[in-house]
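Below is a filled-in request sheet from our internal design queue. Each sheet records the structural input a requester submitted and the sequence that came back. We keep these sheets so that new team members can see what a complete request looks like end to end.

REQUESTER: design group, bay 2
PRIORITY: normal
MODE: inverse folding
CHAIN LENGTH: 417
BACKBONE (tokenized):
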């Protein structure tokens, strides 16, 4: 049965348009259904334009999650009157409320780059590849840009001035995630993929209770705004929001500057005829191919080492401790990782990468396998190479902090090459 409320409007008194430029800071996995490309996880692209796309629903989801975690911590909701439910809406049984913040789809600007990466599951006990667990995925490389567009609706509420104040506050805190480089989008975000930042904001505030504000709204075009906006880098100031310094997240961060002692290779297919079968993983940062240690590879190595340490200290609880920290997926039970590992750019490596010939040996006969000759190009570091490991744990326990600290082993530097 319809009631009068079904026909009432929301009595919008102001519309605040917010725009900016989103910059992809680390490789992003914006997955789509596999098609005929041969890629297991291709990039999600607009079906007509053919450019990568961030949907408005995905953007709203990460903004809402960031606001909730800032207000209440990672694993708390805040109850039915929580601020994130006011800003982004809610649905509880037969009762609901629309979002006051509207986020729009965004198409990537021209000039973006993509690449294909391979991945494989590793068995913890044997340290070998899991059968049938190899796949590849397409990533959007750092430097890609998207237009950010959002619209905050301010209702006309007599005697409820706090509602406008709360909407401005909640929106500002959510968008601070872009200012602080703390928003991640897409898959494998706990492995450093999909980090976002924002360039200069533009905020346009239209007062619909005035004739000029109403005309500006009727003439509104994102590309050619009918009125002047306010530029700036502080979204809280531009939205006239107060009390935006709320921080209730409990995290532990570990940063370590280390060096590579020996040659190394994270296998990546060269993809070119006449080139080695495998080369060390590289990604294009600022238009230049740069050797990297991917977050997935580093997390795998750290997990394996943590399991060894935990098995030495307490074999009965080792797997439980490691799974709770790194996540797991077993049949119908699964848990996301609480450890975030960033991708690392390697600084200091030899310009010339020698090709090494390899052959597979039968361990029982000691002879070579038939047709098992291959070559690869590892990375050789310089004596002054350096890289920074950046780990973050959500809601850590003392045991988990101690386990991660046990990873760090300080030794005397070896002789220069």
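RETURNED SEQUENCE:
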């Amino acid at each position: 049965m319809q009631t009068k409320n079904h026909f009432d409007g929301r009595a919008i008194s102001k519309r605040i348009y917010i725009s900016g430029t989103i910059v992809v800071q680390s490789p992003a996995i914006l997955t789509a259904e596999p098609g005929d490309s041969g890629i297991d996880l291709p990039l999600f692209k607009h079906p007509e334009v053919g450019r990568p796309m961030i949907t408005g629903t995905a953007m709203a989801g990460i903004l809402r999650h960031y606001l909730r975690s800032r207000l209440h911590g990672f694993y708390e909701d805040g109850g039915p009157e929580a601020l994130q439910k006011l800003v982004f809406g809610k649905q509880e049984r037969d009762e609901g409320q629309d979002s006051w913040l509207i986020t729009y789809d965004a198409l990537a600007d021209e000039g973006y780059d993509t690449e294909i990466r391979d991945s494989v599951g590793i068995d913890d006990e044997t340290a070998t590849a899991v059968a049938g667990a190899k796949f590849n995925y397409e990533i959007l490389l750092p430097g890609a840009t998207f237009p950010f567009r959002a619209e905050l609706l301010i209702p006309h509420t007599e005697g409820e001035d706090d509602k406008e104040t709360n909407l401005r506050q909640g929106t500002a805190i959510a968008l601070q995630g872009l200012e602080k480089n703390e928003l991640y989008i897409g898959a494998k975000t706990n492995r450093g993929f999909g980090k976002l930042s924002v360039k200069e904001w533009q905020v346009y505030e239209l007062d619909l209770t005035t004739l000029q504000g109403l005309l500006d709204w009727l003439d509104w075009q994102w590309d050619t705004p009918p009125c002047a906006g306010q530029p700036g880098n502080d979204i809280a100031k531009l939205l006239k929001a107060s009390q935006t310094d709320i921080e209730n997240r409990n995290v532990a961060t570990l940063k370590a500057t280390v060096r590579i002692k020996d040659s190394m290779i994270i296998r990546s297919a060269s993809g070119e005829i006449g080139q080695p079968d495998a080369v060390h993983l590289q990604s294009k940062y600022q238009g230049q191919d740069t050797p990297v240690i991917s977050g997935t590879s580093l997390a795998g190595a750290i997990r394996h080492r943590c399991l060894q340490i935990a098995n030495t200290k307490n074999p009965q609880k080792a797997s439980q401790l490691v799974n709770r920290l790194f996540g797991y997926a077993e049949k119908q039970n699964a848990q996301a990782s609480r450890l975030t590992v960033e991708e690392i750019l390697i600084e200091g490596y030899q310009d010339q990468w020698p090709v090494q010939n390899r052959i597979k040996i039968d361990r029982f006969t000691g002879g070579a396998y038939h047709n098992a000759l291959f070559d690869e190009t590892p990375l050789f570091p310089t004596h002054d190479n350096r890289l920074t490991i950046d780990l973050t744990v959500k809601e850590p326990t003392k045991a988990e902090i101690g386990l991660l600290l046990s990873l760090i082993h300080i030794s005397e530097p070896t002789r220069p090459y």
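SHEET NOTES:
- The mean pLDDT is 88.
- The radius of gyration is 25 Å.
FILED BY: M.R.
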